[in-house]
Amino acid sequence: MTAQPAAGRTIAVVSAGLGQPSSTRLLADRLAAAATAALRDLGADTEVVTVELRDHARQMVDATLTGFTAGALRDAVETVTGADGLVAVTPVFNASFSGLFKMFFDLLERGSLEGVPVLIGATGGTARHSLVLEHAVRPMFAYMRAVAAPTAVYAASEDWGSAGAGGADGLTERVARAGGELASLVAARPPARDRRGAGDADPYEDPVPFERLLASGGQ
Question: Quick check: is 3 in a domain?
């Protein structure tokens, strides 16, 4: 598929790291930088907007209970669903993605990520958890009908050292390859602003009545 001509693109970065600083945020930033560099090579200017889920934790709990997002959380959701591409990185807890990570994506409207290119990543203390990307994270985005880049990037603690970062298939190489794949997927689609109609309705202006939510089996 031929890449679109030079145009401004937006990459949304979702980091579910809990600490500051965070290895999860560090990996997310490196993936976004690699994708941005690859898009620049394709002639596209790129804006990167980062969503730190830890900053929205309380609002996500409220939104999960009420079914309604507001304020900064609503802005974060619109940033993600309105982007040309997505970088999503989670820490690994108990052999799966974090609850914070899952909670955020549970709040998105059905179909809001359909066709959106996404680069998935995860961090953990040991390489034994690397398959979390394939048995948990990739299936979630497949269910949401996003288009996940072929290369998923997992970074264990030892990957951050000079020996682990370089060499054949080291972290630096994997980040560059994954960033290039995301850039190609983004460049092959029309810019997000061109896919949105000028008269698109705000999905929050007409909320679903509570009685209908109950009738549909809301939990």
Answer: no
Please check whether residue 191 lies inside any domain of the structure: yes
CA distance 101 to 182: 20
What is the tally of helices (H) and strands (E) in the chain?
10, 7
Other CB atoms within 10 Å distance of the CB of residue 72: 12
Local mean pLDDT, 10-residue blocks, the chain (219 residues): 60 94 95 97 94 96 94 97 97 93 96 97 90 95 97 92 58 96 96 63 58 60
Place of tokens 């030079």: 6
- CA atoms of 143 and 74, how far apart (whole Å): 22
Apex 14 CA angle, 158 and 30, nearest 5: 45
Write down the pTM of the prediction.
Answer: 0.84
H or E segment at 46? strand 46-52
* HSE, side-chain direction, 13 A CA sphere, residue 5: 0
- Read off the tokens for 51: 């969503």
Strand 96-97 relative to strand 85-93, pairing: antiparallel
Domain range for residue 163? Answer: 9-215
